[in-house]
Write a structure and sequence with these properties.
The protein has about 70 residues and is of the alpha+beta class. It has one domain. Strands 1-2-3-4 form a four-stranded antiparallel beta sheet, with helices on one face. The chain is elongated and about 35 Å long. It binds zinc ion (ZN). The site of zinc ion has 7 residues, from helix 1.
Length: about 70
């Protein structure tokens, strides 16, 4: 069974670069992994929240690209 693409979190940093953390399922566990730096950790609960925290703290990426359209900056 393939999943929809909802199992990832993308954020843009101040330079407009996009960083993505993917939520991976390994058996009964969830692991979140950052495409940018390779950071990963188990995240049994609220993996998306932990992904957002990593993106903000490690990459200063806090802009949701799906919400950023139309902002003239
Ligand atoms: Zn990272």
């Amino acid at each position: 069974m393939s999943e929809m693409d909802s199992s990832r979190v993308s954020r843009q940093d101040a330079d407009g670069r996009e960083h993505t953390v993917r939520v991976q399922h390994t058996g009964a566990r969830r692991v979140i992994r950052c495409d940018t730096c390779g950071w990963h950790k188990p995240a049994q609960f609220l993996p998306w929240l932990k992904a957002e925290e990593h993106l903000a703290e490690a990459h200063q990426a806090t802009v949701d690209p799906t919400l950023a359209s139309g902002d003239g900056a």
